[in-house]
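U., I forgot to send this yesterday:
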Amino acid sequence: MINSLKTIGVFGCQFTSRYRMNMPKFFNDAAQELGVNLVYINFLGKIGDKNAEYGEYELDLIEYIDLDQFDGIIFDGEGYNVPGMADAVIEKLRMAKCPVVSISSHVEGFYNIVFEDSKGMRAAIEHFLDVHKFTKIGFMSGYLTHPDAQIRLAEFRKVMRERGLPEDGVGVFEGDFWFYKGKEAADFFLSRPERPEAIVCANDYMALSLIIELKKRGLFVPDDIAISGYDGSPEGKEFLPQITSVTRERSEIAHKSLELILRIIDGTNDSKHIHITPKLTMGHSCGCKKLDFRLETENVNRIHGQHTELLNNIYDSESSILKLNKVDSVEMLEDVFRELAVNVGEYDTFMLMLHTDRCGRLSCDSDFDQPSGQFSPIIWLDKKNEHKKPKLLLNCSELIPPTSSESPHFYYIMSAHCAERMFGYALIEMADNNIFNEFFNMWLLNISVTLETLLKNDRINKLIGTLEDQSIHDGLTGMLNRRGFDELARGAIRSLSEKKTVCTMVIDMDGLKRINDVYGHHEGDRAIREAANIITKCCDAGEIAGRAGGDEFYIFAPEYSEKKLLRFQERLKNQTELVNNRSNKPYKVELSYGTFLTDTDSSGMLDGFIKISDSRMYEMKMSKPNRRK
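Result:
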């Protein structure tokens, strides 16, 4: 629970796009008035025109969202642009125990805000027919497999039939709900037997592209051809001529959907669906509204200011990318974001939560296993100090830490992932009920790439460590090999700041050749491993031990003494006897050794010390009765 207020989850896609960014603002205003918290679960979907890969893996986030933390849910299915994405979210939301309201498309089993798109389209067509007395009207549809395109085209044909006109008017062109079909549409309509007096477009973006292409052909809107759009986009309001459009009243949508949820919770609701009629708004493109040059000058200056701000934000983004490229630990991420995230808008709270596994490892650790359902806060920026930071981890049942504030809060949660790997999620709360901008999306994407880089670097470093470890260790016994022994022993000598007593030992197995010849090399290897284990167990006073090769072992002991040496020799004897007494093998492990105690400083020569120890080992070996090689 965030606080004692009701909390409504809002599931949607691309809330920061130009067309959709006003929707959260209207919802925040309504939630402020009604006294409820909003938690937006925002997906990016397809990035740009071609990259759908990000959105395909982004849905992993919904697996870790516990719907029980919400008192109600809003589903906005309008912005999803990756096939199957909206359906996957709907299936998740069907598991909710709280009321779910769909605000942009009819979903069976949910409460629905029903847009009467047909009435909005009828208003636009009848405006051309009744006010402007046009009869030669064309229609630019969206792609015909889209439900909105089908509804809007069907209403166009219905109105035209009712007025005794050809149902397709002067022609129907299938567009794309975007900017790319304007040229083809202009060629299509200008090639008709009768040039249209007006063209009704199924959305504003297609209307804009069509106006631009008509102008290239010497035709002006509305003087030569009148144009209308649909959806009331910000681009349509800023463009000249301003687009006459049909707008969905988002403020009304926000109030009615939140009020519906509160009535359901209170048990006072008596309707399953709420109907909203879009409204026709007049622009310049139909000819009804004249240009106000004073207002347009203000618009131009405002857009110029936005352009300057955009360039500055781009420069800040470039700087942040360079800084993130230098990050070599997750601990650095918070400092970088705090210092450079000046282009995301004014925020009160930003948190980055990473998956942990059962061992507590972060998802950017190459040894990370499976998500445990718990998250660790890696970035915790709480400017108002209103949230209680978890001592250890945050459970997925509470994606947002509790707050001490009883005022409404509006949080935005997004997946933090790179390609197919979800690292966790990011949470941000903006100041003054605002929504973040596209630069926050860029930050999140770059942070995710940084986490992927940290993971790969960790994997490489561990691989290098493993290879280095293997390069200085003996594969048969696990002890240091000759190279490893030399590196550590010489390093120990170089570190001596003054004269110290040191000791070298050379230990050699007796009778290894006979074991190999009689019992086989596998038994010889076993005997070598036993000898190595005996020596390793005796090294408990800082001795450096290694297998020099074959059946020979070296030991270097810095800061040693006669007493320590005698203890080592006694333990070596006892350990050897213990192993042989417990063994059921037909042979015994026997060792000969030579030792050398001397005083030296950092200039000591390891090879000389070893040579003396080796000579003494050989003397011991030769002195044994019934000696064997």
